[in-house]
Write a structure and sequence with these properties.
alpha/beta; Rossmann fold; 6-stranded mixed β-sheet; 4-stranded antiparallel β-sheet; 8 helices; 10 strands; 36% helix; 23% strand
Length: 250
């Protein structure tokens, strides 16, 4: 079975010199792969490249074994993502927004109501189904964005800081959802600042610094924070010594 996502030698830089450089990364079926790094390391840029929101200047990206530039509706219907702020129509209620997301991801019309009910229950949103999005709290808007990313049962899930604005119950519900979906064969790529949280769910943790993957962390290791900062510090020292210390992304 091909990787859910494979990135090889991916390069995308900007006029400022920021970007990602020579990144190799994959997400296997049934695997949760966490991407961690300091602010400005390039995590969101890398996720946007994985989703076709940005095009690489070099390297290759494959989704479900298909080159990104050849991916069609069938491949994209198997992808769910939440990058940046959740997108929703404020004048529509949560149920209507989720119905739109389901149809856009090719959920058959007879199955939409069932899929919506299931993901509302999964993320604890049932009580808010009839509320207009503009009246929802930030945390519940985040849950709705996650629900839209998951409603169609994607085989590749890409999430950027998914616990933003979530209360402890929301964090636990999301954690259980991702673990359950990985057990069913989905591949998950998640970026986060929260090492303690990703360690609870990740099979692999890759560290991104100044646009490059500089190593990995053992999710079951002791003192992950220390291991993380040791990796980043050593990389900064190496690049500083070689005159290649790059300004971090804003």
């Amino acid at each position: 079975m091909p990787e859910r996502l494979a990135m090889s030698g991916v390069v995308r830089t900007f006029a400022s010199g920021d970007g990602v450089r020579g990144v190799d990364l994959d997400v296997l079926p049934g695997q949760i792969h966490a991407l961690v790094g300091l602010n400005g390391a390039g995590k969101t840029t890398l996720l946007r490249l994985a989703l076709g929101m940005l095009r690489p200047q070099a390297g290759g990206i494959r989704i479900g074994g298909i080159p990104l530039e050849q991916a069609g509706p069938a491949e994209w219907a198997a992808v769910g993502h939440l990058v940046d702020a959740p997108l929703a129509y404020g004048e529509l209620d949560a149920r209507a927004n989720l119905a739109l997301a389901a149809r856009l991801h090719a959920v058959p019309k007879p199955d939409v109501a069932h899929q919506i009910a299931a993901v509302f229950a999964e993320l604890g949103l049932g009580a808010y189904a009839g509320r207009k999005v503009r009246a929802l709290s930030l945390g519940n808007r985040q849950r709705l964005g996650l629900a839209a990313a998951l409603v169609h049962g994607p085989q590749l899930i890409v999430l950027d800081e998914p616990t933003n604005s979530l209360d402890p119950r929301g964090v636990i519900l999301l954690r259980e959802s991702l673990l359950r979906r990985a057990e069913d064969g989905a591949g998950v790529l998640v970026s986060s600042h929260h090492l303690d949280e990703v360690a609870r769910i990740a099979d692999r943790i890759s560290v991104l610094n100044a646009g490059k993957i500089i190593g990995g962390l053992d999710p079951h290791g002791i003192n992950l924070e220390r291991a993380f900062f040791d990796l980043v510090y050593a990389d900064d020292e190496r690049r500083n010594a070689s005159g290649d210390l790059e300004r971090r992304l804003p």
